[in-house]
Amino acid sequence: MWFQGEVDGSRLIAKDSMRKQKFNIILVLVAAFIVKAILAVKNEGYSVDITCFRIWSETAFTDFWGGNVTDYPPGYILILWVVGAIRHLFNIDNYSTTGLFLIKLFPMLFDLAAAYLIYVMAKKRFSEGMSLMLAALYALNPAIVADSSVWGQVDGTLCFAVLLTCYLFMEEKRILAYFAFCGGMLLKPQMVMYAPIVIYSIIEQVFLHDFSFKKMRRDLIGGVAALGSMVVVAIPFGLQESLEKYTGTLGMFEYCSVNAYNFWAIIGKNWHDQMEKFLFVPAKTWGNVAIVMAVVLSALVFFKLKDDKSKYFLSMVVTVTVMFCFAVRMHERYLIPAIGLLMAAFIYRPCKELFYCLIGYWLVVYINTAHVYYTWVELKTTGPSGYIIGATGVLAIFMLGYVLYTIFRKGEYVREANVEENTKKKKSKRQAGVQTKKEKRFQWKIIPTVVREKMTRTDFIILFAIMLVYGIFALHDLGYNSAPETGWEGTKAGQQIVLDFGEVKNLKEFEVFSGSYEGRSLYVELSNDGTNYIAAGTAKVSDVFKWNNVQLIAQQGSEETIPFNVTSRYIRFTTVDDLITLKEMLFKDAEGKVVLPVNKDQYPELFDEQDEFDSAHTFRSGTYFDEIYHARTAYEMIHGLYNYENTHPPLGKFFISLGIRIFGMNPFGWRIIGTLFGIGMLPFMYLFGKRLFHQTWVAGVITALFAFDFMHFTQTRIATIDVYGTFFIIAMFYFMLRYAQTSFYDTEFKKTLIPLFLSGLMMGLGCASKWTAVYAAAGLAIFFAAIMLHRFMEYRLACNNPGGSTGNISHRHITEVFKSNFIKTIGACVVFFVVIPGLIYLLSYVPFNDGTTNGLFTRMINNQKSMYNYHSQLEATHPYSSTWYEWPTMIRPVFYYCNTVANDMKEGISAFGNPLVWWAGIFAFIYMLYLVVKKADKTALFLVFAYLVQYVPWMLVPRCTFAYHYFPSVPFVTMMIGYSLYRFIGDNKKKRIFAYAYVAAAIGLFLLFYPVLSGQPVSADYVQNGLRWLTGWVLVL
Question: Domains in the chain, ordered, with CATH?
């Protein structure tokens, strides 16, 4: 455990040396800086502001005295001058990656400075570990990171200035506080919003508490000096010009809301003129009233809390939140300082309500800023839209109410007096020679093997009921179980197919079911006598293993197509490419009737399966999305052809090929195995729940939630390899959990190796299916190391008390068998997690054909290099791609398939999550973090770890990513939700009705969205008006 001794919010007497403490915080800040730096160079940021900063840094350095045409005050221009100086000193290109890093460098450093300040405050009240945790939580807070590292904004400077000013006033270092406030004004004009803290502090500390003219004179001189420092800094930029920066900036953007998801955004007035009336009064007037109310409420908070030091921060929280929610001209980022202020308030008023406030406003800030950034990057607009605006605005206002409730409620929390008293007692005990002990929240202890929860009749009924109901949905309309299978194959360019229709025919439609070669072209010529041919154009057959409605490219070198509408007796097709496979051809006349050539017997493979034609061109009869790669490669494996899809390990495609071998090369055949794997995940989820929570109802809840999650349904019905990686990730963690709960001190050693072997086997199969399982394998190694550390600590405890026993385990027995069992376990792991997975990975390349005659090992090694180069250098874009921080909020689903059945009837398939699972998972994850930090909850720690192992690596992946990359995390999302419900409900059977109602609601949403998950025909109006909750949800076209 990182820290062990946080009790009632009071500061424990730290035993760490000052040198070690300095090393700890430096280590945390350096680690945070590395993460932020990576994200900074991987993301261009808001190009408009980044470009301005680049230009201003150049002009500030090259023409410092010439005046600067900027929107920013002198303080930040001086920082940009430093940026420009560094660039010129080291000859760095302004528009290079390093240049971008320098632009974002100082905002990130200010973030770290604020984190350090939080650490300093926390050290006065908490242990070293807790202090480091709080500093890390701020430095790596997604909202903070997204603002400075990703977006490239400079709000971190304001956050630090506000936090420092409030801290210095709390410490009654007013002169320094005046300078800190003025420094903030030099950096960001928005610092003026926090001017009330200066006024309140002067009133209380100078006039209400031990007033003296000497103290007042001292503060007056200090305040004037601070203002004078502002003037001095502004002189090079011109005093009048600098003043105009403040008045001009504060007067800009005269709108009700500037992408701040607040009251004005809720009522649809984002980017609306602030003079528009609301209830017969201009919005600007209402905004001014809100500012007055913000000051009044913050003053009430400040003076009501009296000796509570948190008032310096809470009063400013009230100021900024009231202004953000109800004032006009608010930007999305104006709420960011509330995060640091609430964290500081929590330090001086540690209570769970403030923690909830912190989490709530973190979500508000993150969702607001991330959504605005998303709409700019992806939609190229500064005016976001969608239900997320209103939902976030409502949450912001709700959190404001909850903040006020938290402040004014009567409740118990640790005050400073208690801390001082506790500290004095501890010091006196130490001075008297009495050794004090920490009340440990976590301590090592010997744990016997966990008794396995047996599956009862009720368990089997629940599990099979879920599997049956889900299986019906999953297998229904999976795809046709037949498709054209015979075909004509061209092996070189110039081969011809000449069709004779017996007489001149008007052919208005040409359909081709293609084989395993994409983007093939046929040169089309027409003749009425069979001798003299004229060119009609080029027919391009684009997609594999599906019906292609072929158009003609009339002009060579052009991509413009015209409908296939020819009148002729003879049609001659000449292959343009060396390799081409045509499974079936079909022609229709003007009346829509199928027309067969009279010489069809010369080409029996092209006209023997006409009844397989699907005029609707649905997913039921052919490939869609990435099936064009994976299903095709599975077919190629069977027939020993070159494997087109070679950017992932082969095993996943091999599994797909099993269905093809059994059912044929048709949609049902290439999808069935993945669907069965999807059904097979459910028993593992149920067993996971039973072993982890020891409750039948919790196991049923998480299994049902996972079963009817949209992503689980959609992703296991498409013939891609993600399903296999996710299945084996669930399995490998399940078996490792079984091993963790099996002690080799009270269980026959051979039996302890069984779950370990199965975990290694699942790991090998997962890694050979998709590299995402490698991330999980790394986490599995850490998990195993933690297990073995615990075994070692059990041994140490037994050595300290060799005559004792724990349960049925004799401590002497532990001391006797530890070394032998430990060594044999490590040896077994070499076999289970290195040798066996290595062999599985190597053997998965047996059906793999890379077009060479190389041996098995060489083919495998060469493919690893190829895969790495592909994924590390991929710069492709996709209209439905999304980044890791957008996945839990489901801003952009992956749009797999669409088709128009009738005028208003559409079909669509999209991959995204069940809102009651994914959105609830965000709060469940936060709650898990709370349990880990506050309660040292091991179950929560395991779930957080397993979840992040799948999720965090994607934060460092620069390539184009999609929402389905979040799929391996979803099983652990449902487990976190299930555990959250269990913690709230406990053993109260009556309260379980709430869990069941929640599951029923999630299933209800599944039914509501079922048409756009499964490709069923549905009214376009129903989708647009009922299912499109966010603007990024393109569910049908």
Answer: 253-411 (no CATH), 488-613 (2.60.120), 633-1027 (no CATH)
